[in-house]
Amino acid sequence: MTSIGYHQVALAQCVPRTSQVARASARFAAPRDGAARPAQRCLLPRKAALVGLRPAASRKTATPTTCSAECNSGVPMTWSQEAAPELSGLTAISPLDGRYGAKTKELRAIFSEYGLIRYRVLVEVRWLQMLSQLPQVTEVPPFSAEANAFLEKYLETFGLEQALEVKAIEATTNHDVKAIEYALKNKFKELPELNAVSEFTHFACTSEDINNLAHALQLKAAISTQMLPYMDQVIAAIGKLAADTAEMPLLCRTHGQAASPSTMGKEMAIFAYRLQRQRAQLAKVPVLGKIAGAVGNYNAHISAYPEVEWQSVCHEFVSSLGLTPNPYTTQIEPHDYMAEMFQSVMRFNTVVIDFNRDMWSYISIGYFRQRTIAGEVGSSTMPHKVNPIDFENSEGNLGVANAMLDHLSNKLPISRWQRDLTDSTVIRNLGVGFAQSLVSYQSTLRGISKMLPDGPAMLKDLDTNWEVLAEPIQTVMRRYAVPEPYEKLKAFTRGQRVTEESMRKFVNDLEDVPEEAKAKLMALTPMSYIGNAIAQTHDLTAKLADVEKTL
Which amino acids are annotated catalytic? Predict the structure, then answer.
């Protein structure tokens, strides 16, 4: 909107309806006699005030009042006075917990505050159990079967009620990890054997010893139970699409222009293979962890029990959690593996974006039709529309996912000296990029499920582009030493509409080309000039199985 347009709208909203825009504008002009205007509160939105407009004097019968945002927008004033509603799918700020909540719910137990608390509790309990197995730590004797059963039951039944107890303690401590330590000590009071060693809870640990292992377990769970299975579904769906269209020739387009033909199946196989490579690289990223104390040197551990080989013990503990020990750390695990992980997901997502855009384009030119869903609406005003909304939704959400994952990849590996706190608030968003990705994968899968390839439409396109045979003809002419083969085909086809008849005449008139070679060229059509595209597609399953050998 231009500045004048904005002023007119602002004036029309703030000045009484009986006054037209022109008259209202006149009243906002400076007094002709140059007299000072009495101070008033501006009746216009801030933007209008900033561009130099000054409010006119109020009518004699009116009381000057501030024009609220609701006055300008038509929103009822009661809306701004409403108390904050209870959190639900309708009131959540993020669509991941609202509109898309059903698509991301499996991640809640992993990446929510509750999930993080639960993984922290797991690490603290397992560490205490590890201490009880060290003969040098005589103050923590080996736990009895009863004590271990008590701890296992606590972990197995840990739920929202227990997490709320932790949050209640945190309200006093203002420290989330310390609150878990206190919650565990309270729980241990129920069993004298554990209560006797409760001061060894969180022994020699810094908060990041617990946090980095909890985050690693979160990521490992999300990758293994959600990300990789959904990636496999996307790859499988595209692979099936490739198999179903393996022998359907299509006109390729390079730079948006007609190019040598292929098959739809082979073009789909390309995406399946690309995605499989990124999926395999994600699966190979080691998930690292540490429990090496405040600066990574086991200082506190050694000061208390110098006779224990703490580095070996701690590496064994990290391994017992299914993680890979990082031998060199500061207070924090440096998060390099997280960057590797996120960037693998980003690359997978980028390939899916490429696939979404190609499918969108194939739909737009009629190579695919979309299966209609009863009751579904494509446009609020154009009843005929069947829009490729699933591919569009996926593309948009993948952009958001990659933006978050990119920030995490660039930020988390950087920490001043032995540790600063900038990673703490950022790392709470671990699940956001994954959740956006899952929403996208489900949208892509839904889009694929609606696809109906239109073979006749692809053949029709090929039949109107015989000029694509210029490539094989000039190549055969080169074989038989025909002078200037490329230049002759260029003059014949470039920018020209070539028909079957004109192309056959060109071939028939060729000199210096053996009749047998001519016959093969005469039999060639845009529909049959597809190289080994069909064979490549049929070989996809074997190639996908061999991907890891190429990494």
Answer: 255, 379
